[in-house]
Amino acid sequence: MSVAPEIAGRDESEASASDTKALPKVQIHGLNFFYGTNQVLRSVTMDVPALKVTALIGPSGCGKTTLLRCMNRMHDLYLGNRYEGSIVVQPDGTDILDASVDPIQVRMRFGMVFQKPNPFPKSIYENVAYGLRLQGMNRRKELDEKVEKALREAALWEEVKSRLHQMAHNLSGGQQQRLCIARAIATDPDVVLFDEPTSALDPIATSKIEELIVELKKRVTVMIVTHNLQQAGRISDMTAFMYLGELIEFGDTNRMFTNPAKPQTEDYISGRFG
Amino acid sequence: MRPDLFHALQAKRASRRRSIDQWFRRLGLFLTLTTLGILGILLLNLAMNGLARIDWNFLSSFPSRRAGEAGVLSAWVGTLLLMMVTAGAAIPFGLAAGIYLEEYAPKNRWTDFVEINIANLAGVPSILYGLMALGLFVYQFQFGQSVLAGGLALACLVLPIVIVATREALRTIPSSIREAAFALGATRWQAVWHHLLPYSTGGIATGVILAMSRAIGESAPLITIGALTFIAFLPPAPWVDHVPFVSFDWLFSPFTALPIQMFNWVSRPGEEFQANAAAAGLILMVITLSMNAAAILLRRRAQRNITW
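ok -> structure tokens follow
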């Protein structure tokens, strides 16, 4: 597979801009993760830059989704999972793996969009409003404003504004996924985590979501797990290549795709395995 | 072997296999119709013997030594009160246990053990629940041979049905819905209360109705705890004309119920009492069948309204 043309098509000035050291939003340090006795992540250390799209790539089972789900402590929902190391969120410097930190607070700062669109069997409006309601927002006017804002940012407002109180399941798959994005950003999270958000969608719906993610980074930090290398090339500023639970290489997407430092990265990107 | 012979043999085998297939189709149809037929004959028989007896007097009269004047007032009121106690106890306990086991409990050997035993409880003969209730509710807790003791005995009997129905209804909700709620910062309780319970109401209600229709026809546990067979009075009303306007004295009243009344009439000599028994049986049957029909309708509606 070849990704070179898309990379070549990128604007040179944009590429050089993303080379400059951006402020880290999330600093992952020495992160080990265990499912029971099975170690899935091995001392992962990386700084996720603020207001950029960071892609996690690698073959199946490399730990990229596991890493993503560490960020909002989703692993806490299941027994026998254990973290070591630290994940520090800036600017406040909270280590979200610290025992004193409530995972529920963490999840309110990290929005998540899943592989398959998973709207609640409720109205479009209630889907977007749910996170706000959890945070204690009850006033109708405030909710209306926030819901509209989130739907506009998810590029869905024009399509649904006349039927906000219809069931979310009447929407198409791509619309449902944009609804899930609206639901995730309605509460103004610090970071939005995307777990292969387009793997269940057709190419047209996929390109809409991709445009949306690029648009989103103006105001929120994005981390995205993807199986699709071209997708990582198209939308991400930084790319992390993982293999067997280790972070092999992490750097500027352009540089990673054109001039990888590690032979494993080159083998994966050039399609020799994975 | 010559090819034409081979094909002839194949054709013969095929026709033999087809005829076995046909035979099973006919046998299956016959047995199905027989089962339905027996139920139909039973209903028809009850209706022929009892339908003439069912009128306003039958529903509003107490039992009597004279068959023609006897009615089921104390029996249906007793059944209604029993069901209120049974539902009031079995629904909260069953829901709580089902939600705990499905959403909260860790999956380990201890919960496996609990799970197997709940399945076992559903198979315990109902008379044993009666014995348990006699010892525990009637004597230990001093509830007496009352509506409360009877309702609780029936609640124990149907509790496993409610628990299993709750768990199955919760299990049909995909885990992606739970994760969506958790990812937005919901606690387990919020996920249950805002999402899982509303989305599984249809399934749970179906299970509850089936459990109640099982309880309504039970007589063994009630006889065991000493329900009376001849009661010519009603339990005290649940409302009173002085503060606090509600009264729970009815809980401690002696009672009878439709199956017991029916049992009493069946065991008496004389055509007319048999007609009374058939009429009571018909009422019971109609209640049970309409509860089951309601359960089926609910399940259909629940399935139609929610898609994942």
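The mean pLDDT of chain B is 89.
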